[in-house]
Structure formats: C-alpha cells, structure tokens
Design brief:
The complex is a heterodimer of chains A (293) and B (431). Chain A has 293 residues and is mostly helical. Chain A contains twelve helices and two strands. In chain A, helix 1 crosses helix 12, helix 3 runs antiparallel to helix 9 and helix 7 crosses helix 9. The two termini of chain A are 19 Å apart. Chain B has 431 residues and is an alpha/beta fold. In chain B, 49% of the residues lie in helices and 13% in strands. The chains are: A mainly alpha (293), B alpha/beta (431). Chains A and B meet through helix 11 of A and helix 3, helix 19 and helix 20 of B.
C-alpha cells in the first residue's frame, strides 16, 4: 500500500482535532468519571463521598438481581440476534428474487430503521397492551391469556419483537449488499448442474454470505446489549418483576431511579469491559474476513 | 449621542438592570393542563411586582425533574426552586446543606409563617421530626374511589352508595364480573401508594417503625396480618380475573375510562382524565379495612412540593419568599385547587372554595380533603418516609407483580418485599 506523507506537521492534528475533542469530551471524560465513581460510595447529591475500593464491584457481582440481569440479557440478546438475522436473511433473499418494484420493496424493508427506539417501543406497546392494544384483543378472543404486564414470558416476547423489528432493516441492507456481491456465474453453474434453489442457497449463497453474517452477528449482539434501552424503557420498564431488566436497564435503574451512584458506576465499568472485549473479538476474528463492496 | 456616550450609558445601566430584577428559576414536572397552571401562576406573579422574575422550566417526569435537579446541584448549577414528588421527599430531606428549609426561608425574610393556616396533614408530611416545614406544598392529592354508574346499574348494585370497605369492594367487583356487567370488576393505579402507604394511614396501622420513618430510619412492617389478608384477597381476585392489573403508576386509569373495569382506586388528581372520558362516574371515599380499629383514620398526601436549593444569594431568597407568600394567597390557592384538581394548601382557600359553592356544584372535589382532614393524624398516618422510597416502591411493585401473576402467595410476597426493602433502606441510610 502506498504511504501518504503529509508535508505539514500541524495540519493533520488540526483536522483531527474536532473528532478528538468529541471523543475526549463524550467518551474518555465520562469513562474516567465512571471509573472514579465505581470505587466511591456517595450520596445522591455528592455531599459526602468515601473511597471504598472494589466494594461496589463485589456487591454488584454477588447480587442475585445482577445475575438475573445477566441471564435476562443473555436470553434477550440471543433471541433478538437470531430472529433479526433469520428474518432479515429470508426477506433479503426474497426481495432479491423480485423483478418488478425491487426498489419499492427495498425501501419498505429499510424504513423501520429510521424509527427511534422509544417510538418503536410505543408502537408495539399500543398494539399489544392488554387493556387497549389493537392486537391484544384478537389474541384474547383466540383464548390466549396474553398479559405482558404480569407474565414475564409475554413481556420478553414483546420487547424481543420490538427490538427485532427495528433491527431487521439494518440487516436486510447488509444482506442485500452481500447477495449482490455473490458472482452470478456460480449460481448459473449450479443451475446448469441441476441443483435446486434450496440446495444452491445452502451450499453456495449461505457460505459466501458468512463474513456478512458474522459481522452482523456482532453488530446485532452489541445492539441488543446496549441500544435497546429505549424500547425496554418504553414497553416494560424492566418489569414485570425483574423479567426484562437487562444489564443496561439496571445501570439506569440503580443510578437514576434508585440513586445508588457507586453500584451503577461499577456496572457501567463492567459493561465497558464487555464492549471492549466484543470489539476486540470482532477486529481479531471477523473484520479481516469481511469484504466491504 | 456619540458612540462613547452610548457605551457609558450601557455600562451604567447594566448593573442597575441586573439589580432591578432578580431572576428565579423554577424547575417543574407538570404537563398538560397543570403546566398551564404553572405558567399562569408564574406570569401573574411576575406581573404583580417588579423586583423578581420567576422562570418556570419543564424538566420531564417527576423522577426526571428530581434527577435533573440533583445533577445540576452536583455541577453547581442548581435551580432556585425545584419541584419534587412525594416519594422524593426523603431523598431531599437527607440532603442537608443542599436545601434551604422553607420555614426558615420565610421567617428570615419577614414573611409570617403560621402553620395553623395550612392543612395539617399536608404540613406534617413536608415537615422534619422537629415540626419545621422543609418544603412548600404545591400540588397535593389523595387517593379516592371512582365507580362506573352504568356498570353498577347493570350489575344490580346500588348506584348511589359506592362500597365503603375493602370487603364490600371485593364483593361488588365479583358481582360486576359474574353478572357480566363488565369483564373486570376492580382495578387500581399506584398499588404501593394506595394499598400500602395510604392503606396504613387510613387503617391506622404501621407501615414501618419510627412513625413510618418520619422520626427516623424506618423498618418496614407491611408483612403483618392485615396486609397479608388484604393482598391475598387481591391475589385471589386477580386469579379469578375480577381484579385487573394495569401497571406500576397510573396506567390502570385507562382500564376504567375504557369501560373495562367497574371500580377504580386512583389519585384525586386523575379526575380530569375521567371527566374527559365522558363516562357516567361516581366518587366515593377510599375504602378501608372493616377489621381495623379506628378506620377510617386519615389519608396521606401524594403529589409534589417545592424545594428551595441551598447556597443562593439573599436577594434570591427574598424573591422566593415573596413568591411563596404570593402562592399562599387565598385566591391563588383557590385557582390552583379548582383548576388542577389538586388540594388547596391553606385553610382559607378551602373555606373560600366552600363559600363560593364550588363543592355543592362538584361534591366529589371535597372527598379527598375531608379524607385527609377528618381526624388528627396518628403516628401511623402522618405519612411515610424513607431515604430511598422510590427504590422501595420498585421492590414492592416487583413482588406484587410476581404475586399477581400467581407465582407466589401474599405472605411470601410481602415477606420478600420487607426483607429486600429493609436491606435497601439500611444500605441507603448507611451511605
């Protein structure tokens, strides 16, 4: 690769300055604050504070509610990632086979991505609220005891559906790009050899899509872990009981509702470690294999 | 005029202008019609004098406004007046040095503060154990019973006599369901506020030790027999589909306004939405437990109060005192009460509303006041307080939800709630 050499010493720094400033102010500074707070015990107003070492971490990690949140997060992320990838792949493959109005279908498929998480949550809530939901009523008529306000499983299904719906568009976009990058000649050759469409998909298309799928798997997991706060906040608020309280929601709840800053900060630091690990994993194993068209 | 001359005038006038009007910020959490009341009161106050300007700023929901205030205080940018909801009272009281007690502020600034002019239940709730009023009660409400008269008629219930005790409520609710008059007999908003905090006061039974936390750090007592009986009844009704759970805050109001449920217990502040829904409703007192001695006692206020933040200039405090004096005026209180559905804070305003015939035209509007004022409060009915009441409410809600889903009985739920709640209170008090 050709090395680009800047004749100017100061200019590159100057050009980088805005981005660096943003990163410093919006990432490094808050991160440092979180680290500091995670080893302190403080009252909500910050009138008195004491250094407590790793006591907050010990407390958080031995709290059964935290372990519950880990479990909830694992179930939630897995369900969201798997269903968002599966449905998106199906839709992308189907959208590619359409001849007329391809652009129209694609636009419709990508549309939900523009909806804010909290708004998406409200939409699903309005459809499935047991007392005024437009779709909850027919469910009840079918004899299904649908009640996400009290049944943990129903609540989980609802937030998973909302989070999945919101993420499908993003995945479709990448899958369509991935599908278009697959050489026509391979598919034509398999057709000449008499392979069925299904066989061609599983032996040619799916393996060739693997880099895209891996990339999306990481992105979807990160999305399910961190970006779904708005949906959970709008739809269930972590309830009923603690059945939809994910790790991120617990950070918010302990810090901003219960005002236990030390615990909340310790949880943020743990989350930070998880994200760093996921990102490292992605760069180490996946980034090298993904081919961006 | 020359340029220099203009500058001279500006420089001379600038400090004068700043001195002439002191700006006072007021962060609040009122929406809809209640936000209009805030703006109207502020602009009327600003027009009534020329020394101070009150600037109301909407800061989101109650918890959001409290958080915004706390974050601003930590950053040294606290507002002058902060509206804090009832459950945040303990949090604010624990923050000595961050706040300026209202009674102290008023007396320091020459405003006479006579406790007897205010409704006793409300003053007690916002006072410290020594009886000093710490915050200014702005909007207070009390839980009451609403019932759908059409559903009562269809179910063959007495339309003019709503149930008075909880047992009567359960019976009426079952009759509503079994007669097919409605799919749901009874629902309630705010289970914690209505069925534990007010349940304790109204039935004169302890919610926690130390006068429910008013005179010290409380230990929860909500697993005693009377609570177990009450919540087991609710759990049984939920199982039969007679009681329908709406959510942790005021969501259940919709189950009532949509005509799904025949009976609702809700804040008196929720009246506006019920009127707007256009259903044929009636109002009754909050039900009490017939087995409790001395019930009904009195209810305790919900709503919010205005806290004055500490470390402000004397000039600002003079302005805040002037504003609170203005706010206590009878006509202002009467306006606030009649417009917003919240309770009047002063006796004079209550008397004025009475004299004007307001309650004859709107009898239901007096129920929350008589409930709160009926009897002198006991140690069980002055209010409840904990350094972390929002968290306690969450813990209780979680246990109630698991109970209503049929996964545990009332005794187990309440025992778990008490254990978890006490642990959380100890943790918060120790910090």
């Amino acid at each position: 690769m050709r090395r680009t050499v800047f004749p100017h010493k100061l200019l590159p720094w100057l050009l980088l300055a805005p981005q660096l400033a943003i990163t410093l102010v919006f990432f490094y500074w808050p991160a440092a604050q979180a680290f500091r707070q995670s080893v302190m015990k403080e009252d909500p107003f910050g009138l008195s504070s004491a250094f407590v070492g790793l006591a907050n971490f010990r407390k958080v990690l031995s709290d059964p509610n935290y372990l519950n949140a880990v479990q909830v997060t694992a179930v939630f992320s897995l369900l969201v990632a798997v269903s968002a990838l599966g449905i998106a792949l199906f839709l992308a493959v189907k959208a590619e086979t359409i001849i007329r109005g391809k652009g129209f279908y694609r636009t419709l498929l990508i549309w939900p991505y523009a909806v804010a998480p909290a708004v998406a949550g409200m939409l699903w809530l309005f459809m499935f609220n047991p007392s005024f939901g437009t779709l909850a009523w027919p469910l009840r008529q079918l004899g299904i005891d649908w009640n996400p306000l009290l049944q943990g499983g129903d609540a989980m299904a609802l937030v998973v559906a909302a989070a999945t719906w919101k993420q499908i568009s993003y995945n479709v976009l990448f899958f369509i790009a991935g599908l278009q990058a697959i050489p026509r000649s391979l598919l034509e050759a398999s057709a000449i050899d008499g392979a069925s469409r299904r066989h061609a998909f599983w032996t040619i298309v799916f393996p060739l899509l693997a880099p895209t799928t891996f990339f999306l798997l990481v992105v979807n997991t990160v999305y399910a872990l961190f970006d779904t706060f708005g949906i959970i906040h709008a739809v269930t608020g972590g309830g009923p009981g603690k059945s939809t309280e994910t790790l991120v929601y617990k950070v918010y709840n302990d810090g901003f509702v219960n005002l236990i800053m030390g615990d909340s900060a310790a949880q943020s630091v743990i989350l930070m470690v998880i994200v760093i690990a996921l990102t490292a994993f992605q760069f180490r194993f996946i980034e090298r294999r993904v081919h961006y068209a | 005029m020359t340029k220099t001359g203009l500058w001279a005038v500006c420089l001379a006038a600038a400090p004068f202008a700043a001195e002439a009007q002191t700006e006072i910020s007021w962060w609040h959490a009122m929406t809809g019609a209640n936000a209009e009341v805030v703006d109207k009161i502020a602009s009327d106050f600003n027009a009534s004098q020329s020394d101070y300007v009150i600037t109301p700023v909407f800061k989101g929901t109650y918890p959001e406004a409290l958080n915004a205030g706390i974050a601003a205080f930590r950053a040294g940018q606290a507002p002058d007046i902060l509206q804090v909801f009832d459950v945040g009272t303990g949090v604010m009281m624990g923050a000595q040095g961050a706040i300026k007690p209202v009674a102290e502020l008023l007396t320091e600034n020459g405003a006479t503060f006579d406790k007897s002019q205010y409704l006793p239940g409300i003053v007690a709730y916002y006072s410290n154990p020594a009886g000093e009023m710490l915050s200014f009660p702005y909007n207070s409400s009390s839980p009451i019973l609403y019932y759908n008269k059409d559903i009562f008629q269809k179910a063959g219930l007495d339309v003019d006599n709503p149930p008075k005790t909880w047992d009567e409520v359960w019976a009426a609710a079952r009759q509503i369901k079994s007669s097919g008059a409605a799919t749901c007999g009874y629902t309630s908003t705010w289970l914690t506020w209505i069925h534990t905090e007010n349940f304790a006061a109204w039935n004169d039974t302890p919610w926690g030790t130390n006068e429910n936390g008013l005179s010290g750090i409380p230990e929860l007592k909500i697993d005693s027999d009377i609570y177990v009986r009450h919540f087991q009844a609710l759990a049984d009704l939920a199982k039969e589909g007679v009681f329908v759970y709406g959510g942790r805050t005021s969501e259940a109001k919709q189950n009532f306004t949509s005509g799904e449920c025949g009976i609702l217990t809700e804040s008196s502040g929720g009246l506006g939405d019920i009127v707007k829904a256009g259903i044929n409703y009636g109002i009754g007192q909050l039900p009490y437990d017939a087995g409790a001695d001395g019930a009904p006692q009195n209810t305790i206020p919900g709503g919010a109060s205005l806290w004055v933040m500490g470390g402000k200039s004397d000039e600002t405090y003079r302005g805040v005192a002037a504003f609170f004096t203005y706010l206590s005026q009878t006509d202002v209180q009467q306006y606030l009460h009649e417009q917003s559905g919240y309770l009047p804070v002063t006796m004079a305003a209550y008397e004025a509303s009475k004299a004007s015939g307001f309650y004859e035209a709107n009898p239901a509007r007096e129920v929350p006041i008589t409930q709160m004022m009926g009897k002198a409060p006991t140690e069980n009915s002055k209010g409840v307080r904990a350094p972390n009441l929002p968290q306690i409410r969450d813990i209780l809600n979680e246990e109630f939800e698991t109970m209503l889903a049929g996964e545990q009985d009332a005794a187990t739920a309440l025992k778990a709630a008490v254990e978890r709640g006490n642990a959380a209170i100890r943790e918060a008090a120790g910090g």
